[in-house]
UniProtKB/TrEMBL annotation:
Protein name in UniProt: STAS domain-containing protein
GO terms (BP aspect): transmembrane transport
Subcellular location: Membrane
Keywords: Membrane, Transmembrane, Transmembrane helix
Length: 574
């Protein structure tokens, strides 16, 4: 193997150390100067300004106090950047987790959420070290669009209470079908002040996005409305009135109560956290790659996500994942390395240490307005429109995933959506395979000989009624095996030889190989010689494993050689 081949082999099959080396280490090896640090500091500050109100809003919507969101962004975000496989990934609490986190808190309490988050972190570590990150990305596009839109609807529904300033006796139901009647009954408690604050937050964000897209609209809206509500003593609930403010610092790390029975009860939640976290973080990394032309390390990224979730849980935070909006903001702000994500965590920590008392003045209605905009942005209108106008199967997968997300369970929606998408793919792939009966060839047709020469087929061989030639085209797998098997079962007894042309078969699985083996046994019993030509080495190896081998079957590299062998052996009385 020459040096060039060795280099290509190393690039295609990286070693363990290279595969799990954080991008931070790669960046430092390449050289990192003050110019890079300045760019990363500006990007980190920009992302922190975006993450500040969003982290608190997501935490409140998830059923925990706002400081939990900030802890998650600080601790989890630091580890995602420091250990991750992407140069630009920004980690923190994500809107996609609101439904799952709120349900876990309702069933198992805050301590149960912490343990479930730690278990999810362990699962993500295992997925990464087992190098399963590549497969996590095999989620059909209609599924991602469907569950993301469903989550957007659920998030908006969860904020109606704060948007309208309603008072619900007995708490707010979780399922949307129970929530809507409860909100309807609570309409008499409607607060005009809360609605005006929420509507103003939405208006400020949307106007600034159109007129000043580079300004931090969410932070400006929250700061401005906090000042207005404080100055005019508006009758609206604030972080201070409901939660008593946020602590001025990080809590000491601690472990929750860990028992086997508790872990068993939390297992479904932990699996859901890990699955959604893996999908969300890798999608975010792919978006960053598309914006920058770089490539992330999927398995290294999952390992970092696992470590970040464990660390976040130790400090009392919630689930961490890569966040698409904040990662995109980091790229657009000029971030150059994982240092920007680490600095984003440092800036958020500085806010807690310096300005924590000010957070008590933030109206909950303003944060609800922020989440309403987030929910709307999560619904990918263009993608939904394209899928609705496209193939019916994709539209069905989208609709089923969306409906299950909204009215049933997110994990169930993803599993069912992936299964439906897989069945749809198998059906489409099975339709691409064809088996053609070739009895005649034009004299202009040429054979593909082993040494690359091109010469006309022998028409007398091709038109021999004792020889039947079938050309199989496409991936030959279990989805198409019955179709091909039905054709092969109709072999006429009068033929002396059956030739199967495998030149255009890129893949063959065990079911297909067994189908060919059955045809070989049937041909042998009837005295018909079976010849296979053009099979790729891996296809031939799979056939051999299922007993499709000499002397029952002969293999040739080209169809021309197969036909010549039949005529020669037939003429010799074989």
């Amino acid at each position: 193997m020459d040096a060039g081949s060795a280099t290509r082999h190393a690039d295609e099959h990286p070693g363990f150390i290279e595969l799990f080396t954080p991008k931070l280490v790669t960046v430092l090896r390449e050289g990192y100067g003050l110019k890079d640090l300045r760019a990363d500091a500006i990007a980190g500050l920009t992302v922190a300004i975006v993450a500040l109100p969003l982290s608190m809003a997501i935490a409140i919507a998830s059923g925990v106090s706002p400081d939990k969101g900030l802890i998650t962004a600080i601790v989890g975000g630091f580890f995602v950047s420091a250990l991750g496989g992407s140069r630009f990934q920004i980690g923190g609490p994500a809107g996609a987790f609101i439904v799952l986190v709120a349900a876990t808190v309702a069933r198992h309490g805050p301590d149960g959420l912490i343990l479930a988050t730690m278990m999810a972190g362990a699962f993500l570590l295992a997925i990464g070290f087992l190098r399963l990150g590549t497969y996590i990305k095999f989620i059909p596009f209609p599924v991602t669009v469907g569950f993301t839109a469903g989550i957007g609807v659920i998030i908006f529904a969860s904020q109606i209470k704060e948007l309208l300033g309603l008072t619900l006796s007995g708490g707010e139901p979780g399922p949307i079908l129970d929530k809507i009647p409860a909100l309807w009954v609570a309409l008499p408690s409607f607060s005009p002040a809360a609605f005006i604050v929420a509507a103003s937050a939405v208006a400020i964000i949307l106007v600034l996005k159109r007129l000043r897209p580079n300004w931090p609209g969410m932070l400006i809206a929250v700061v401005a409305l906090s000042a207005v509500s404080a100055v005019f003593s508006l009758p609206v609930e604030t972080i201070g009135s409901r939660f008593g403010g946020i602590p001025a610092g990080l809590p000491a790390p601690h472990l929750p109560e860990i028992t086997l029975s508790r872990m068993h009860a939390l297992l479904p939640d932990a699996i859901a956290f890990a699955l959604l976290g893996a999908i969300e973080s890798l999608l975010s990394a792919v978006v960053a790659d598309g914006m920058t032309g770089r490539r992330h390390r999927s398995n290294c990224e999952l390992v970092a996500q696992g470590a970040a979730n464990i660390a976040s849980a130790l400090f009392g935070g919630i689930c961490v994942t890569g966040t698409i909006a904040r990662t995109a903001t980091n790229v657009r702000a000029g971030g150059r390395s994982p240092v920007s994500g680490m600095l984003h965590a440092a800036f958020l920590l500085a806010f807690i240490l310096i300005a924590a008392p000010l957070a008590g003045y933030i109206p909950l209605a303003a944060l609800a307005g922020v989440l309403a905009v987030v929910a709307w942005n999560m619904i990918e209108k263009h993608a939904i429109s394209a899928l609705a106008r496209g193939a019916r199967g994709d539209a069905i997968v989208l609709a089923v995933t969306f409906l299950l997300t909204v009215f049933a369970d997110l994990t169930e929606a993803i599993v069912v959506g992936v299964l439906l998408g897989s069945v749809l793919f198998i059906d489409r792939l099975a339709r691409t395979i064809a088996i053609d009966h070739h009895m005649t060839f034009s004299l202009d047709d040429v054979s593909d000989t082993a040494n690359g020469e091109r010469k006309p087929y022998d028409a007398s061989l091709a038109t021999d009624p004792d020889i039947v030639v079938y050309r199989i085209s496409g991936a030959f797998f279990f989805g198409a095996a019955s179709k091909i098997g039905t054709v092969l079962d109709r072999i006429a007894d009068r033929h002396k030889a059956l030739v199967l042309d495998f030149h255009t078969v890129p893949f063959l699985d065990s079911t297909a190989a067994d189908t060919v083996a059955g045809a070989a046994r049937k041909a042998s019993a009837k005295g018909v010689r079976l010849i296979i030509c053009g099979a790729a080495p891996h296809v031939r190896h799979e056939l051999h494993r299922h007993g499709v081998a000499p002397p029952q079957v002969r293999f040739f590299q080209t169809l021309d050689k197969a036909l010549s062998h039949i005529r020669r052996t037939t003429a010799g009385g074989a």
